[in-house]
Design brief:
This protein is of the alpha+beta class. It has 23 helices and 16 strands. The strands form five sheets. Strands 1, 2, 4, 5 and 6 form a five-stranded mixed beta sheet that branches. Strands 7-8-3-9-12 form a five-stranded mixed beta sheet, sandwiched between helices. Strands 10-11 form a two-stranded antiparallel ribbon. α8 runs parallel beside α11 and α11 packs across α12.
Length: 617
């Protein structure tokens, strides 16, 4: 609603905000949250299956944003938040942290001794709801927050209330005795401050993403590594007790251990103990949305994504019979491809090089991923199984997922090199090549040497080698948008237009002809359809290919007269009458014509196809 207001709202808000700061008192009315339960999954009768969505007054959130900006800048400028924390940090993300962690494991594998990595995954139960208010105030004071601002935070977190809102009904207000406000602007930052000291006295490596914690040790001696990890787990347990938090209390979500190893036989590793229980061992773990298996093959992760994608594509295939082309196209990109994009720069495998004349091809795992986009292209266009993948991608303007991953790796290197990711990633980049005679530093990097194919194909070695190829085309470092446009010009074909035609069935027929796999006998014969032993047309005069169907077959002479009349009229007014027998014009229109004329022409083509009833038999 505030967006509908003019500038007259500014002064009242300014007066309110100044009074809050002057009195160090947060308005009680802004502390009431309306909570709506949203079902996550499974049984609707179980409370634990609902996610509470908390709504707070918008004016309060505007004020919070002002405080947040200043508080975060203070903590960031003084390096008060650990660099091992990636959650809610501008410029950081789950992908960045996972990229770093996976590279750590790959580097251990690459070691001449093929080192193993032992990792424990922990999770704080209901982390945001368990923050102890007095403890939070203590930690704010420890970090230099005092005076009126500290009193304001005390007022902000104390005496907060919430009520459940469902179908227009309200529950009674309940007072929140712990936790940071859900749905607030300040809540995530206050939580980071609260758990910031968790890493103190930790001997192993540790990484946080908000409350998700990965503790890991690169093993040189199993006994020493186990001792360090057990020491750290005890430190974490003591910290949780002291600050009234709980790690993995749910029996179904216990702490989990994965031993990352590429060895055929692993040495014995002493057990790990956490909360007086032996840490369970597993061959894989879903961490921040990526399934990490013991050999970093990502097979289980990809199989899970493929299973989910197939269900959505089934829906797209059904709906494409009723929706304009743009809608199923967008559904695929939003509901399927976006999930395949997640961490694709990590699981990507470069094309394998085959003996001549085969050349390059996708690895078996990447081929499984590519088939998903192919099935989506069939669903969106209504084309038949067996249609050319390349032709379909050219029609839709889609780059292959393999090329897309390659492109995204190059762009990730640009982000890392130009400071758009955390410093922990930039530290992994190798040095640049030697300066030029004029003293300028080249944009290319020294390539990372590798001992194994596994490491060669991992992000940093492979992405840097590809980066060096593409960046050499630029005299100076391009900005992100320019580099993306340049790379996309290599990989993404220009989409073939259907000029806004909303006739799903007719458009499907059109695509079938464009990609050369349709009910026409020549197309079916070429693809070895059992019911088509010959490509000869039913008219017995010649092969039934697309040209014969449009211009020669005597079975459709009447329909052809109507088609020719419509098309010639359009071509005449565009001075293109010499293209009256150009098959491409009937399937694609012509670049020199207006979108409206092209639309009318393609509609005439679709009408002809339908009138012949050749595709409906």
């Amino acid at each position: 609603m505030l967006l509908l207001c003019d500038n007259s709202i500014v002064l009242p808000l300014q007066i309110i905000f100044e009074n809050i700061l002057k009195t160090s008192t947060y308005p009680e009315i802004w502390k009431l949250a309306n909570v709506t339960p949203i079902l996550k999954k499974n049984d609707k009768q179980l409370i634990k299956n609902y996610r509470p969505i908390s709504l707070l007054p918008i004016c309060g959130k505007i004020f919070e944003k002002i405080i947040f900006n200043n508080l975060y800048n203070y903590f960031n400028a003084n390096n008060l938040i650990t660099k091992n924390q990636s959650g809610f940090r501008p410029g950081d993300s789950t992908t960045n942290q996972l990229l770093y962690l996976v590279n750590e494991i790959h580097e251990a594998f690459e070691n001449p001794k093929s080192l193993e990595v032992r990792a424990v995954f922990l999770d704080i139960s209901k982390a945001f709801d368990k923050v102890w208010h007095e403890g939070l105030i203590f930690k704010l004071r420890q970090n230099g927050i005092h005076g009126g601002l500290l009193k304001l935070f005390e007022s902000y977190i104390h005496n907060r209330k919430q009520r459940v809102v469902l179908n227009g009904s309200f529950s009674e207000d309940s007072i929140l005795k712990s936790g940071v406000p859900q749905g607030s602007v300040l809540g995530p930052l206050l939580f980071l401050i609260y758990i910031n000291d968790l890493e103190i006295n930790i001997k192993s490596n540790i990484k946080f993403f908000a409350d998700d914690t990965m503790l890991y040790s690169i093993i040189k001696k199993p006994e020493e590594s186990a001792a360090d990890l057990n020491h750290d787990l005890e430190i974490i347990s003591q910290w949780a007790h002291q600050w009234k938090m709980e790690f993995n209390p749910d029996p179904s979500k216990q702490a989990n251990e994965v031993l990352f190893s590429c060895k055929k036989s692993s040495p014995n590793h002493p057990p790990l103990i956490f909360n007086r229980n032996v840490v369970a061992k597993s061959k894989d773990q879903k961490h921040l949305g990526l399934i990490l298996d013991s050999r970093l093959s990502f097979i289980k992760h990809i199989n899970e994504k493929i299973t989910k994608a197939k269900k959505v594509i089934g829906v797209i295939k059904h709906l494409s019979n009723y929706l304009p082309l743009k809608t199923p196209d967008q559904m695929y990109k939003a509901l399927v491809r976006s999930h395949l994009d997640y961490c694709d720069i990590i699981y990507h495998e470069p094309n394998k090089i085959n003996q001549p004349p085969l050349g390059l091809s996708l690895t078996a795992l990447m081929e499984k991923v590519e088939r998903i986009q192919y099935q989506a292209a069939l669903a969106v266009t209504g084309s038949w199984q067996g249609s050319s993948r390349t032709n379909l991608y050219e029609e839709l303007g889609w780059e292959s997922l393999s090329d897309r991953r390659r492109c995204r790796r190059i762009l990730q290197v640009h982000k890392i090199e130009n400071g758009r990711t955390p410093s922990y990633l930039k530290s992994k980049l190798p040095t640049h090549h030697r300066p030029q005679p004029d003293g300028s530093v080249p944009m290319t990097f020294r390539e990372l040497r590798s001992r194994t194919i596994r490491y060669t194909n991992s992000f940093f070695p492979e992405a840097i080698a590809t980066w060096n190829i593409f960046i050499s085309h630029f005299g100076i470092m391009p900005n992100f948008a320019s580099l993306k446009t340049y790379i996309s010009s290599f990989f993404r074909p220009k989409k073939k237009s259907i000029f806004g035609i909303h006739d799903p069935l007719g458009v499907h027929y059109l695509f079938q002809l464009r990609v050369n796999l349709s009910p026409l006998r020549s197309h079916k014969k070429r693809h070895n359809f059992i019911d088509t032993p010959s490509e000869t047309c039913y008219c017995k005069q010649s092969a039934e290919n697309t040209s014969h169907f449009f211009f020669e077959c005597p079975l459709f002479a009447t329909q052809r007269v109507n088609l020719a009349g419509s098309v010639i009229e359009i071509l005449l007014r565009n001075n293109l009458n010499h293209l009256g027998n150009d098959l491409r014009v009937y399937l694609y229109g012509h670049d020199s014509m207006s979108d409206m004329d092209n639309k009318i022409l393609l509609l005439s083509t679709i009408k002809y196809i339908k009138d012949t009833q050749r595709f409906s038999t």
